[in-house]
Amino acid sequence: MTGTIRLRLDVSYDGADFSGWAVQPGRRTVAGVLIEALGRLVGPDTPLGLTVAGRTDAGVHATGQVCHIDLPADDWDRLGGSLVRRLAALMPPDARVRAATEVPDTFDARFSATFRRYEYRVTDDPWGPEPLRRHDTLGWVRPLDLDRLNAAAAGLLGEHDFAAFCKRKEHATTIRAISRLDWRRDPDRILVATVQADAFCQAMVRSLVGAMLFVGDGRREPEWPARLLTLRERSSEVTVAAAHGLTLVAVGYADEADYAARAEATRRLRA
Q: pTM of the prediction?
């Protein structure tokens, strides 16, 4: 058998001890440990074309990350249904491949995606996060009002230029379309922000959360975050919330027949 097989990999990780997703010389990253494990199965010099739906920053977690690789067909024929189990034996306990699914070569983990969904966990209990959740829950020292948080969130929905909330990259757009942004308080009293958009700029979700928290604790008015949307540069007034409260929970995709069209449209938009 010749050629390659495109595989979708569904990945989870605890970001606490990773310097983010992307490979960086001398640093421990999620892509780095995944590539190392795959290399031990198919050879370290095998080109895999690892592509991820969204690069997460240092300290950010994932329960719903998606990436794709192009695996030599002979290796896929040999490994088959044992790939996930073999990777579990080779990867560290804070990163896991939960599924490996054959997909058409028109599937692109990054450009075929229709949305990314994140959750941010915060506790305003005076004792802080429960010890077993300290790696994924931010402790906030001031009481937070759920209605004020949701009022601030409502003003940020829709398509806007989020330059005030982004670390700008040269020649990259900061226009994004947020399709969901809301807060809930779970039975354990944890406040959870759900943020969904077609894509995000670097540090955008944590900046939005940071702004909304200042509204929730009464230091800013609910209209303040939306007023920042008139700016065309990053706002020095916005505090970026800590990375460890943030988790990528889902990536959505078009129907299989639309993978290629969606990927092409996204490439044009990002260009």
A: 0.94
